[in-house]
Amino acid sequence: VGLAAQTGVVMIVYIDHAYERRLAAGQINSLEDIVEAHAEGTIQRVRPKLMTVGTMLIGLVPLLWAEGSGADVMKRIAAPMVGGLVTSAFLTLEIIPVIYTYWRAEQLLWRRVGESAPARLPALQWIERAITAGLFVAAASLVLRVYLARPPAALLVMAAAASVVAALSLVAYVSARRGARLAVERASLAALQ
User: Fold this and answer.
1) Residue 1: its pLDDT value, please?
2) How far, in Å, CA of 59 to CA of 63, rounded?
3) Are 8 and 33 in contact (CB under 8 A)?
4) Residues 6 or more apart from 40 whose CB is under 8 A from it?
5) Of 55, 74, 56, 54, whose CA–CA distance to 64 is shortest?
6) Which has the closest alpha carbon to 180: 119, 127, 105?
7) Distance of alpha carbon 10 from alpha carbon 168, whole angstroms
8) Rounded to an integer, what distance in angstroms lies between the CA atom of residue 16 and that of residue 81?
9) How far is Cα 39 from Cα 15, in angstroms, rounded to an integer?
10) Pair 181, 112: CB distance under 8 Å
């Protein structure tokens, strides 16, 4: 877990540096610009990540086929580490950049909404807070059920209600986001004419 967390954080730092450099130069104006900036940051981390994973796999894979004394214990240690290394590489090189790109695209949309349709921005912010609150209450309720010796049934009801609030808020966000995006596009077209 430590290696995966560390390399994930380093990946985000490199993506942030590439993004901030382009943002300061005024080169972030569309989703394509965000994707290019994130690709630049990600590409800088491909070789170091693959070298780390490759080196560790070279050391661990022979343990999976060991036959000597203590091999049964070493196999049980090496197998999850090999799986974790492969999963960590996929997470760091594929999943984190995609999620981060989506988040930056939302930031760009919010910035544009604030510039061209500021009346729509508070609705998006309140809906986002409702989603966050619903997810937090649902997660807290489920965690409390695990840690309490005799959890009350109300915790399960609270988790379900909070999940429904989060789901309905997500539907509202998608609808409000679509309207905000269309308002931004209309404002952009009007500015071009």
Assistant:
1) 63
2) 8
3) no
4) 18
5) 74
6) 119
7) 35
8) 29
9) 8
10) no
Specify the 3-state DSSP secondary structure of 67.
coil
Q: Which of 99-113, 125-139, 140-154, 156-170 has the lowest mean pLDDT?
A: 140-154
Mean of the per-residue pLDDT values of the chain:
91
Residue with tokens 């995006």: 181
Determine the Cα–Cα distance for residues 29 and 46; give it in Å rounded to an integer. Answer: 26
The pLDDT value given to residue 151 = 84
- DSSP class of 93: I
Q: Is the pLDDT of residue 125 over 70?
A: yes
Q: How many residues does the chain have?
A: 193
At which residue do the structure tokens 């290696």 appear? 3
| pLDDT surpasses 90 at 193 | no
pLDDT score of 191: 83
How far apart CA 55 and CA 71 sit, in angstroms, is: 21
